[in-house]
Write a structure and sequence with these properties.
mainly alpha; Arc Repressor Mutant, subunit A
């Protein structure tokens, strides 16, 4: 997801590493802090792959700054990753938010809709954090007030996301992106 976030933020504009790190931290830092020890190796991997280019600009007061730019290959790779997300990118909420943050870069409404439909199918499957045998438990079946809280909050969040997904899919369908 770190690489997807790097590609996504650089799709919009060239950035230097510090600014890129701030933006990634704002998107995912509450869940996955962005350490320099993970960010800069990821940048170097993307650079070696030809997806990023680095230029050096003189610093106004301090040392020169390295500015990162997405190459055309990087733009194509971002769109490919968005159009064909890994199953975990659809099922893991934090990974899903990263996909969603950049899904607008897939310009085809049908492609956007296909990704949203994968998330919709996942959310429509019965699930729970707690089970009795193979049967998922609902909040009303759990005696522990804290576990009941988890299920109540998760259910409300899922209902809100399902409503948003359905409304957004209807909107995309009206643009010719339907694939029902």
């Amino acid at each position: 997801m770190l690489e997807l976030a790097i590609l996504g933020f650089l799709y919009d504009a060239p950035l230097h590493g510090y600014e890129l790190r701030k933006r990634i931290a704002a998107l995912t830092g509450h869940v996955r802090p962005v350490a320099e020890s993970t960010l800069y190796p990821a940048i170097k991997r993307l650079e070696r792959s030809g997806l990023l280019a680095r230029t050096t600009q003189p610093g106004s007061v301090a040392a020169p700054r390295h500015v990162l730019t997405l190459t055309e290959e990087g733009r194509q790779e971002l769109r490919r990753r968005l159009a064909e997300p890994d199953p975990r990118d659809v099922t893991d909420e934090n990974r899903w938010f990263t996909v969603l943050a950049f899904l607008r870069h897939l310009e085809d409404p049908a492609a956007q809709g296909a990704v949203l439909r994968r998330r919709l199918a996942f959310l429509e499957e019965p699930a729970s954090f707690f089970y009795e045998g193979d049967r998922p438990l609902g909040a009303e079946e759990v005696e522990d007030p804290f576990r009941r809280g988890i299920l109540t909050i998760a259910r409300a969040t899922t209902r809100a996301e399902l409503a948003w997904l359905r409304a957004t899919l209807d909107s995309l369908d009206s643009l010719g992106g339907g694939d029902r």
